[in-house]
Task: inverse folding
């Protein structure tokens, strides 16, 4: 392997030939002296090892930067104006800067006046008064500086990058602070931070220039040695967690061009991989001859400029590819960078590229030491950031041996292992247009596509590529109306068994297959429908289709699986019987519906399940499985051109047929009834029920609004019963919905001696609705909750698949759900009044109290 000629690295021998002198004063202050008599000047620097990352409870305030400003406003021995005047009178320059991890004060001047520099800097750093009269004035100056930063696109972009890259570490905060947090700082905050952090045992004094090392140490003892060592409270510095998924922040601001960066978290300056990462940046993207510049700018014209660089503080750093481009080219440029990164890792880097990059880094190091200030700065970084004055020599020794395989390794480890940070700042005009109002309704109304097959099967499709997952749901009409009178609960058991054994796979094989890809395969059943649903990542669509087809076409209903699942369903029923609320609901349902199939919920009856056999399940399946009774709903990330032919292949082969069920006519109980049921419990459950609408009734949606009006913590019923009178633990309305018949009721948990009073309050609310006394504002709030609840409920692929499936099974248009808001808005106080008068009549009311 060809490496950079040794002669290039020999250029650094003079740089590292004479090691600096390092002394630690008795009070903990560190002194570093670098003799260089090539010019009669010196740079005296005081590195305070505190910056914005050390602000602790004041994090985000910019207090470190504020202290830096205030240190030049006066000391115990000098007025503020005297500091700079005295330095300038001796031909020197004084300045300072604040970073994340340090605040540095420095004076560059003729070496003959180095004593003055020690005097002035020690006075400012150790004896500053932070004058109260200067506090407000300097705060206004910094506020203007903050505003200037907010006006500067580069500053805003930098902040976007850091707050996106760092979610935990204090690097996420701007060094200068947030305007509102900074504005809240008091002089006491400032003084407390200064007293805590500006102590000799937190200082590094660095001198480079035409001054003997002995003289430097003597001056440091004189001016810094008398200060007393003080306790420094450790600042907790949380470790930034790995970036597990791409972090994205695209901002649209008043700018003309797009600034963008692809970045990755990398380790700090002293990590063994730091030299290789630096070399990778320079080799790949350092300068106009580098591949990134030549490909993206010169050849493909996707960017105006591009640069690769590493930022490596002590711990958490960033590898960034920053580029300037047009908004229209942003995504293409980023995609091309990712392609080039993957390609370069495969083919490696040429020796000439690496040699060029190493020489650039050597020259950069030499150039950084052209001045005494530069030399002192390099020593300050080595001491305070890398923690080793010999860091530079060790760094270049490591760099010397690096080759293409090292760059490939770090690129794979840090850049290709995920965790990308993708940020940009773009012109406002390029912001994506968000659909609103009528445009949104028009778009969503077309989301589901329906395909009908000659055998009667229906396929519903909704593409949603927000996430790489896919939900497939097959449903049939069924439930209580399809079950034999003495086999209640068979539908729920059938749905469960469809997810188990098939002609090709055992139940264990099915479970292992779906769990092996992290998917889910589960049944569902209700009063009127049943089915199975499968959800996988979109890349596992092949397996999902296999399992679904096998379940629908080749279920085997094995006896062992039947017995296991029947016993599990029985256990669930027994568990429900232990709960007074569940028991009370079941008991009311049986009393209310009598012989009607809705008298028993989908879980079934214990005695029926005990008597059930696999033949019962097969018989029910034969009745329900016809293609004309089937709907398959697919929602998520899929390729229509590939998926539809595969589904068509097996859906079109299903045997024709539909479920023929005659629902018994039923308009409610023959007479009103009231009963008390004893149960050994402390509380009582109070229920009452009225005939309610089925899914096809004209007032079905009115019942939904009424249900919302009577329920929830903001309902009048809850306020009256729970909050004002303290009668019940819970109170609300409830519904059971069949295809034609239904039940509308109320339920509350209360003390046994308060049952009648709770029933009276329920009746009072029904009477209020029947009298038309529901307030318009009350109804409006109810509508807002309903519409919001529907939007919240339809966030997932599974919930949208279910809604479209049931709409289709019930004979509604597949996209009927898009009219939900409009139909809710149409419900008025008079319609609620009619509902209460027609449906909630005491002549067909069934009451039940269950309790001790």
Result:
């Amino acid at each position: 392997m060809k490496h950079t000629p040794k002669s290039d690295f020999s250029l650094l021998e003079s740089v590292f030939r004479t090691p600096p002198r390092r002394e630690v004063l008795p009070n903990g202050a560190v002194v570093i002296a670098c003799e260089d008599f090539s010019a009669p000047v010196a740079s005296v620097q005081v590195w305070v090892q505190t910056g914005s990352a050390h602000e602790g409870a004041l994090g985000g305030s910019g207090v470190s930067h504020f202290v830096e400003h205030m240190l030049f406003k006066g000391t115990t021995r000098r007025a503020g104006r005297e500091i700079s005047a005295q330095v300038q009178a001796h031909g020197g320059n004084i300045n300072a800067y604040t970073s994340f991890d340090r605040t540095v004060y420095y004076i560059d001047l003729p070496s003959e006046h180095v004593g003055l520099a020690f005097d002035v800097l020690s006075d400012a750093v150790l004896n500053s008064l932070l004058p109260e009269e200067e506090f407000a004035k300097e705060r206004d100056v910094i506020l203007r500086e903050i505003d200037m930063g907010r006006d500067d696109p580069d500053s805003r972009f930098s902040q976007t990058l850091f707050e996106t890259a760092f979610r935990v570490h204090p690097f996420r905060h701007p060094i200068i602070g947030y305007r509102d947090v900074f504005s809240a700082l008091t002089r006491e905050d400032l003084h407390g931070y200064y007293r805590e952090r500006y102590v000799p045992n937190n200082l590094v004094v660095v001198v480079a220039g035409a001054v003997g090392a002995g003289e430097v140490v003597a001056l440091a003892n004189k001016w810094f040695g008398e200060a007393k060592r003080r306790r420094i409270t450790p600042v907790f510095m949380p470790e930034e967690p790995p970036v597990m998924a791409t972090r994205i922040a695209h901002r649209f601001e008043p700018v003309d061009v797009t600034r963008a960066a692809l970045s990755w978290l990398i380790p700090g300056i002293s990590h063994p991989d730091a030299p290789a990462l630096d070399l990778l940046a320079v080799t790949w993207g350092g300068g106009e001859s580098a591949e990134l510049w030549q490909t993206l700018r010169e050849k493909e014209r996707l960017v105006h400029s591009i640069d690769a660089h590493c930022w490596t503080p002590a711990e958490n750093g960033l590898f960034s590819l920053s580029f300037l481009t047009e908004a229209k080219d942003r995504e293409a440029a980023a995609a091309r960078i990712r392609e080039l990164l993957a390609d370069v890792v495969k083919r490696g880097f040429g020796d000439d590229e690496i040699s060029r990059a190493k020489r650039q880094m050597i020259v950069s190091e030499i150039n950084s030491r052209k001045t005494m200030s530069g030399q002192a700065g390099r020593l300050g970084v080595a001491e305070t950031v890398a923690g080793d004055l010999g860091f530079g020599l060790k760094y270049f020794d490591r760099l010397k041996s690096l080759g293409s395989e090292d760059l490939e390794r770090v690129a794979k480890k840090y850049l290709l292992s995920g965790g990308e940070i993708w940020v940009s700042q773009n012109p406002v005009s390029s912001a994506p247009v968000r659909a609103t109002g009528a445009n949104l309704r028009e778009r969503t109304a077309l989301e589901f596509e329906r395909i009908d097959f000659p055998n009667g099967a229906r396929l519903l499709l909704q593409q949603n590529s927000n996430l790489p997952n896919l939900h497939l749901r097959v449903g049939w009409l069924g439930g209580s109306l399809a079950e034999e009178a003495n086999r209640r609960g068979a539908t729920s058991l059938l749905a469960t068994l469809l997810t188990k054994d098939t002609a090709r796979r055992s139940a264990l094989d099915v479970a292992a297959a779906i769990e092996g890809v992290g998917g889910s395969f589960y049944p569902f059943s209700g009063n009127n429908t049943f089915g199975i649903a499968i959800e996988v990542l979109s890349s596992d669509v092949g397996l999902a289709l296999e399992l679904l087809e096998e379940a629908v076409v080749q279920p085997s209903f094995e006896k062992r699986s039947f017995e296991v699942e029947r016993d599990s369903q029985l256990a669930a029923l027994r568990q429900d019987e232990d709960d007074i609320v569940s028991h009370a609901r079941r008991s009311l349902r049986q009393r209310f519906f009598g012989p009607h199939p809705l008298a028993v919920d989908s879980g079934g009856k214990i005695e029926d399940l005990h008597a059930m056999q696999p033949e019962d399940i097969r018989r029910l399946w034969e009745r329900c499985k016809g293609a004309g009774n089937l709907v398959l709903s697919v929602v998520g990330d899929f390729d229509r051109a590939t998926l539809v032919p595969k589904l068509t292949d097996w859906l079109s082969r299903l045997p024709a047929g539909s479920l023929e069920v005659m629902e018994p006519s039923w308009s409610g109980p023959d007479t009103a009834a009231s009963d008390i049921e004893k149960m050994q419990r402390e509380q009582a459950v109070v229920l009452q029920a009225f005939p309610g609408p089925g899914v096809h009734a004209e007032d079905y949606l009115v019942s939904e609004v009424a249900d919302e009006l009577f329920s929830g913590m903001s309902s009048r019923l809850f306020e009256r019963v729970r909050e004002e009178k303290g009668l019940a633990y819970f109170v609300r309305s409830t519904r059971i919905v069949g295809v034609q018949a239904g039940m509308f009721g109320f339920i509350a948990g209360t003390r046994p001696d308060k049952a009648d009073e709770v029933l009276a309050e329920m009746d009072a609310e029904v009477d209020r609705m029947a009298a038309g006394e529901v307030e318009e504002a009350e109804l409006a709030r109810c509508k807002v909750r309903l519409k919001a609840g529907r939007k919240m409920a339809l966030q997932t692929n599974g919930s949208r698949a279910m809604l479209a499936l049931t709409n289709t099974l019930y004979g509604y248009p597949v996209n009927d759900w898009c009219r939900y808001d409009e139909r809710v808005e149409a419900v008025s106080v008079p319609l609620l009044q009619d509902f209460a008068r027609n449906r909630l009549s005491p002549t067909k009311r069934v009451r039940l109290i269950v309790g001790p």
About this structure: The longest helix spans residues 132-151.
